[in-house]
Amino acid sequence: MAVTEAADMTAREVNKQYQDGLSYKRRMGFIDKWPEYERFKAGDQWPAATQKTKALPRPVFNVIKMIESHKVANVMSEQIKMIFSLQEDDETEVNQEQIDTGDLFSRFSEATWERIKQDELNEEGLDIAANTGTGIWHYYWDADAKGGTRFPWVGEMEGEIIDPINFFPGNPQQRKVQKQPYIIISSREMVDNVKAYAKANGLSNEMVEQIKPDKDTQDQGYDMAMVELNDSSKVTVLTKYWRKDGTVHFCKVASGITIKKDTDTGMRLYPIAVMQWERRKKSIFGVGDTEGLIPNQKAINTLVAMQILSVQLTGWPKVVYKKGAIDPSKITNSPGEIIEDQSPPGSGEGVRYLTPASIPNTAINLVESILDFTRQMTGADEAATGTAPSADLNATAIMLLQKAAAIPIESIKRRFYRLIEDVGRIWEEFWKVKYNLPRQIILRNDDGEEYSELFNGADYKDTALNLRIDVGPSSTYSESLMLSSLQDFLKSGYITFEQFLKYAPKNVVPYRDRLQKELDEQKGIVGTIEQFVNSMQPQEKAMFDQMQPQQQLQLIGQVIMNQQAMTQPAQPMPPQQPALVNM
Hints:
3-stranded antiparallel sheet, 17 helices, alpha+beta
């Protein structure tokens, strides 16, 4: 009974904290604003038509989506790597084991990045951050994942993006997520799945049957989230993280029942990373681009709609006729149609068109001005999007223009790189705490070839690591600049053709590996000799030059024979005759 009462108290406490978080968001207007931002980005930018406005044109020139998509692509345009290294004192000499440990974690981060599709998570998180102002990355332990034959393992780290409307920090005024007293994440889950989860975690059948579906969709905010398939299939699940005795604990609550009791993760960090697109004073929730672009978007749509309406009224003006002058049912839209005026003679024109006022040129210029100013103020002008002011500019000039135009986005990039560093620290915690059994992991070497490594995170639990985020070029213009520089070096004779193939981008030079292999085969012995001579130390090279030609040939011949012996497969040993045994 004591355990049940404690679980009920936990559920009541979590529900109260969740309601407090909802109340705060309502007072701040987030529950209404964020769904409005999503509608504008999706193109739903006009209010519902009324009887008086149903004929008004409703054009949508989605400037919000264009600007935010460009800025997100710009932030993600660089190739990011996590570089781990072992912490050491300045007076301590770095040994090979320390280098291997940092290299292992660095290569494991690359493999994890690819496995959990981190690039897709980053794109989704940045899209939400650009729109609402806050991006939230959440990593959790999937206990259902299994694998390994020789070294079987259970559990794997996974990642997801949390919408800020489902994120409830204990102190919204604290920007740093690791300083939060607690964090609650809400989600809508299928009732059958929640019941199975609760039963697997030791809940009695009586308690499991008390988990009922609910209709708490109004607090989800977004139009698509508030309309579910039916009203009897989902329930709101609350996941709470908090710290106790130096480690992070978590529990889950649904229908006022604790379906996952207080569980120690063994980790010191919350498995959550938060990024603000633009910082908001004294708030963990940032400011997105949509918040300031909506008035401009409305002005552009309205001005363009008035221009379209003016063209419609000028091309198809309204007809004014005197009663009895014509039969309105006989008038069609056929060009050159003859209309008979049946009004009495001397009563004036019985039929005429209304002449609408023409729209001034200032309205047309105003649309272009608003659009240009908006793009300039948000860092999404023509140079930033790759549209060169002149067709004579090469890739280098365009790249320089882009870098100059991307200065307003640099602060966003720095916050994103800091987020990736926080993500790397969360991964490190998972590896050291959760990967506590030997498992075989697949890594890649510097040439991109896969190899396996046996990993047990418990061996590194007390190992302190440094983490550095390495940012490198990966955009099309960066590759063009790299290829152009290599071509200049090749023409000037600073590098050989083999070096050109080695360092050229893979997706720029087709069949690069096959070309290198054929060149190596063509070089044969000559290439072996060149490689042998070039690998000599300066002292060895001086001694080799002083040798007689015959001695040089003998030494080279010995090297060639040694390499051939290493490359040839080992010959099987001939079968031995059985020894005769004297009886």
